[in-house]
Amino acid sequence: MSFRTQRRHTTALLSLFATIFAGCLIGCAPYQLGNAALFPQNIRTVHVPIIRNATFREDLGVRLTESLTKEIELRTPYKVTADPLADTVLRCEVIDETKRVLTENDADYVRALDAAIQVRASWSDRQGRLLMKNSIVPTDDLTILFSQDERFVPEAGQSIDMATQKALEDLANRIVSQMEARW
Questions:
Q1: Is the C-alpha dihedral spanning 42, 178, 127, 50 positive or negative?
Q2: What share of the chain in percent tops pLDDT 90?
Q3: What pLDDT digit, counting tens, does each position of 100-135 carry?
Q4: 92 with 119: CB under 8 angstroms?
Q5: Closest Cα to residue 76, out of 50, 51, 41, 49?
Q6: How far is it, in rounded angstroms, from Cα 78 to Cα 46?
Q7: Best label site of 93, 137, 150, 162, fewest CB within 10 Å?
Q8: Cβ atoms of 62 and 70 closer than 8 Å
Q9: How far apart are CA 183 and CA 100, in angstroms?
Q10: Nearest alpha carbon to residue 116 among 65, 55, 28
């Protein structure tokens, strides 16, 4: 094989690889790298009003609002804003908070407990269209119910406040996960 023939084969092979590589990069749809591709693209801002709290623990609404704001800013391409005229509004309400004894010792001292929190959430755009839908169990209710349990052991130095904070952070994570675009 002559030098020219070998050079033409190499040029043709490089052109083929470049075409395939460009096709993989471009594809048939506009792909995005990172977590931005997981969320609806037409949204830039989210308003999260202070979360209503229907329980006797006064601080749960404020603490969940803080956790949700941090989670949205960390995991989504959205900016949380105080402006009620944002692109979307995420409304939540803490509807229940309980503490259950799981195990006791022979002297009836509590060894392990569960802290449980229930939250109702809805995410809508300016026109009032729901953006977060429960596709598993369709209901007439405009909200989705989230519930989170966290176990704690007082003998190990764990407290109800630690368990509650972990439950609130897990709830914020789950709510933000529901904000992802459906496939």
A1: negative
A2: 51
A3: 999 988 888 888 999 999 999 999 999 988 888 765
A4: yes
A5: 41
A6: 7
A7: 137
A8: no
A9: 38
A10: 55
Nearest in space to 172 (alpha carbons), one of 111, 102, 119, 133 = 119
Contact yes or no for 51/64 (Cβ under 8 A): yes
pLDDT digits (tens, 9 = 90+) for 126-180: 998 888 876 555 555 667 889 999 999 988 899 999 999 999 999 999 999 999 8
168 CB-near residues (< 8 Å, 6+ apart): 60, 63, 64, 67, 117, 148
Determine the Cα–Cα distance for residues 5 and 7; give it in Å rounded to an integer: 5
Return the structure tokens found at 7: 């050079």
Side-chain-side CA neighbours of 50 within 13 Å: the count stands at: 7
- Answer whether 152's CB lies under 8 Å from 163's CB: yes
Task: Yes or no: say if 132 and 179 are a contact pair by the CB < 8 Å rule.
Answer: yes
Residues found in the chain: 183
Q: How far is CA 167 from CA 64, 77, 82, 132, 134, in A?
A: 9, 24, 25, 21, 21
